[in-house]
Design brief:
Layout lengths: L10 E2 L2 H4 L15 E2 L2 H7 L1 H6 L1 E7 L3 E7 L2 E9 L2 H4 L14 E5 L8 E5 L21 E7 L10 H11 L2 H4 L10 E5 L1
Antiparallel strand pairs: 1-2, 3-4, 5-8, 5-9, 6-7
Protein name: DUF789 domain-containing protein
Pfam family, one: DUF789
InterPro entries: DUF789
Length: 189
């Protein structure tokens, strides 16, 4: 039995950044910690998004075929310190706020390519920081996307990431160390 997995190049946190102004990785001053850029993660899905991931199957105990599965984004939530976005030199790298809207693909009903839907907003009272039982701060919800269409009606994974990152550039530029361990995504194959 074989398995497939996304492989991304990792970098090491710059020691100069560890010593002062930057705390996104929460690193120990004596150790470098690896991280990856989200764009590298999306790049790992590029070929699968275009051609599918081949899975060999044996039919009736003798005939071999390869079935291809294509990834589709189901949902994503990114949590972290909003100061990472606000202190960025890139003015387009911003946290979604009450004026932003999310896109929901609505092509299954044939009415339009996209339907604007209000995003769940993150500046609500008591929602800006989440502290777990251990007292560890999980950070602020930086980005959220939930897909409602069936997988066979969705945009290919990399196309969806491209359209979402046009509205939230952090989807490409954030580093894994900028995000809380509470961040997650769901992919349908």
């Amino acid at each position: 039995m074989t398995s497939e997995g996304a492989t991304v190049p990792e970098s090491l946190v710059d020691l100069a950044m560890q010593r002062g102004e930057w705390r996104g990785c929460g690193v120990d001053a004596n150790r470098e910690r690896p991280y990856f850029v989200l764009d590298d993660l999306w790049e790992a899905y590029k070929e699968w998004s275009a051609y599918g991931a081949g899975v060999p199957l044996v039919l009736d105990g003798c005939d071999g075929v390869v079935q291809y599965y294509v990834p589709y984004l189901s949902a994503i939530e990114l949590y972290g310190d909003s100061s990472v976005l606000q202190s960025s030199s890139n003015p387009r790298l911003h946290m979604m706020d009450d004026s932003d809207e999310d896109f929901r693909d609505s092509s299954s009903d044939g009415s339009s390519d996209y339907e604007h839907v209000r995003a769940k907003h993150f500046a609500q009272e008591g929602f800006s920081r989440d502290v777990g039982e251990s007292g560890v701060t999980h950070g602020r919800l930086l980005f959220q996307y939930l897909e409602f269409d069936s997988p066979f009606c969705r945009e290919p994974f990399t196309d969806k990431i491209s359209s979402l990152s046009a509205r939230f550039p952090g989807l490409r530029t954030l580093r894994s160390c900028d995000l809380s361990a509470r961040s997650w995504m769901s992919i349908a194959w």
